[in-house]
From TrEMBL, chains A, B:
Start and end residues of each HTH lacI-type domain: 13-67
Keywords recorded for this protein, A-Z: DNA-binding, Transcription, Transcription regulation
Source superkingdom: Bacteria
InterPro entries, per the entry: HTH_LacI (IPR000843), LacI/GalR-like_sensor (IPR046335), Lambda_DNA-bd_dom_sf (IPR010982), Peripla_BP_I (IPR028082)
Organism listed in the record: Pararhizobium polonicum
GO process annotations (BP): regulation of DNA-templated transcription
UniProt keyword DNA repair present: no
Single GO term (MF): DNA binding
Record has DNA-binding as a keyword: yes
Listed Gene3D superfamilies: 3.40.50.2300, lambda repressor-like DNA-binding domains
A Pfam family annotated for this UniProt entry: Peripla_BP_3
Protein name in the entry: LacI family transcriptional regulator
Length: 344, 344
DNA sequence: CTGTTAGCGCTTTCAG
DNA sequence: CTGAAAGCGCTAACAG
């Protein structure tokens, strides 16, 4: 393979091939490819033609090596398969649109060990910033993030000791609000359905919020079913509600760690001929599409998943642009609100 | 900024910094970082220590420039927010695990124009292979893919003129099978609910299959509701079934382009006091989690979304490894099967 | 097992 | 507006 590409090999053409064909230098081609740089329109036209004839596509890896800007932003979410987090990912990509920044997305399956691996894998690509879900990381993961020298945004949570910037809300407070809202409605005997381990930080915070709110109200917070490895599925929600009704048949309302398990519980109740909310009320968390559409429609907590992503990405681009670190607010609190529907 | 990094600046340390600190050459550091290369354990230990002290992370962009292997695989799906496609994405990442290949994921929002942009954006990163959803692309997109000189895998479909390799199934045949299965069960008056435009290729193929099967059976294929821009939502499914029952009150079974719209239709029927399947039967497509869990449980077509991703990634890695192009089978057909449940 | 040299394809920087 | 030289951080290839 000669250095001079003859266009007949399968080797991809380089910028030099384009330059030669257009009768200019590579530098001029580089300029023509970048917005807002001054190239005479005649030259630009010749270059464009050469690019099309050759089927040239810019090699950005090479470019970023010399410009020291990769154009990557990394984001790590627990699951790609959960519409709450994929809404956040959508928010990020949408906010990145037009900035020339491209998203490098990874998911951890709710494992901090996997998160640590991902952090390293992504940092090898030299992203210009990184967006994480939650504030729990391995010590090594945390150290890598701190030393990376790029803006770090933790989302979906309010970490006690943020690494850098935060866009999130308190999952505990959100669950407390749900409990209070339902208590005000007259419910007294509350149950909670969630996953078993502490793997899902946000899940355990919601459970803690549940307990806190009931204790404050002087109500029992014992009715807690922990079932299945988070994230718990619809089917597991169905099984959990059965356990709950066996152990505590007088439960008035079952709060679930997410709408998905709540939906499973709701359907299972119907299958068993229980009327919701008359025999048992059910509420979820997350305001997934399903909550608004199921029958009866589900009471839940809306947490603006898309907005979390959008704001995280905005904060990131602002921080990247504002050379001086720390320009945007360090913490952005995103809203949550209880959506009362027919299931309670 | 001097070339020699003193560790006190915010500049990220380079391999040379590590080498100097460990008293070896950069090349040895490079070797120590790569699996299966021979470095004495004493040297390796010094290097490892230097890496930890410095918090060094390999710069893969630089590495790929010289090794001419980026370690990227690109995948483009219609929506990240749809569990069918995110299952495919999961299948891809899982199959890529341990290969040293990293996924570059993008979504098109069901727009071929957006797909074209994404193809170019991804090719700029010089992926070693690319996985697409469906066989419809813009002419320019197709040309770029053909000229990229990397394996291309089209999935979720059986394109008439594949660019390269295919892992998919015929959406039309799958829908025909559903119609036949239900006709065998005695249903005669079939309705179809799907989106309006041809944006969603797989959606229109399913509709075409619906029509074909009914014509073959000598049954009417007129009851078609086209409602909403694909992908149609649960809520739109709910509205569509209402229209259908207004226009053709004698419809016996409503087939929906996906489980999501089918679920919306199912819930709406319950809301209106219609018994499913007695008053009207409903079937979906995709076998989403919700189909197995809703009440009544939904009849649908399972299409092995995860397996499509897994097999596509396997075919890709095989093709990348087998230097000689075209080693694996060009077309892998993935299975589909009708899952009969309570809704029909 | 380790080092040296060269260069991947582009952009920065400086000249013209 | 355009070009030439240098080099980004790493690894291939070869030498020892």
């Amino acid at each position: 393979m000669t250095k001079i590409n003859d266009g007949k090999t399968t080797e991809a053409p380089t910028m030099n091939d384009v330059a030669r064909r257009a009768g200019v230098s590579a530098m001029t081609v580089s300029r023509a490819l970048k917005e807002g740089s001054h190239v005479s329109s005649a030259t630009r036209e010749r270059i464009t033609r050469a690019i099309n004839e050759l089927g040239y596509v810019l090699d950005q890896s090479a470019g970023s090596l010399s410009s020291r800007r990769t154009g990557f932003v990394a984001a790590i979410i627990p699951s790609i398969n959960n519409s709450n987090f994929s809404d956040t990912a959508r928010g990020i990509t949408d906010a990145l649109e037009g900035t020339g920044l491209q998203l490098l997305l990874g998911y951890t399956n709710y494992s901090v060990e996997r998160e640590e691996e991902l952090i390293e894998a992504m940092l090898r690509r030299r992203p210009e910033g990184i967006i994480l879900t939650g504030g729990s990381h391995t010590p090594k993961g945390r150290r890598m993030l701190e030393q990376a020298g790029i803006p770090v945004i933790e989302t979906w949570d309010r970490p006690a000791q943020p690494i850098d910037k935060v866009v999130g809300f308190s999952n505990g407070e959100a669950m407390e609000l749900l409990v209070e809202t339902l208590a005000r409605k007259g419910y007294r005997r509350f149950g909670y359905i969630g996953g078993v381990t502490a793997r899902d930080t946000r899940g355990s915070q919601r459970r803690a919020g549940f307990v806190r709110a009931l204790e404050r109200l002087g109500l029992s917070s014992d009715r807690v079913i922990s079932f299945g490895v988070p994230p718990i599925s619809m089917e597991q929600g169905a099984q959990a509600v059965v356990s709950m009704l066996e152990r505590w048949p007088d439960t008035q309302v079952a709060l679930c760690v997410s709408d998905l398990s709540a939906f499973g519980a709701l359907m299972e109740c119907q299958r068993r001929g229980l009327k919701v909310p008359q025999d048992i009320a059910i509420a979820g968390f997350g305001d997934y599409e399903i909550a608004a559409c199921c029958h009866p429609r589900m009471t839940t907590v809306n947490v603006d998943c898309y907005g979390i992503g959008r704001q995280a990405a905005l904060k990131l681009t602002q921080t990247i642009q504002a050379q001086s670190p720390g320009t945007p607010e360090p913490v952005t609190l995103t809203g949550f609100r209880v959506i009362e529907r027919e299931s309670t």
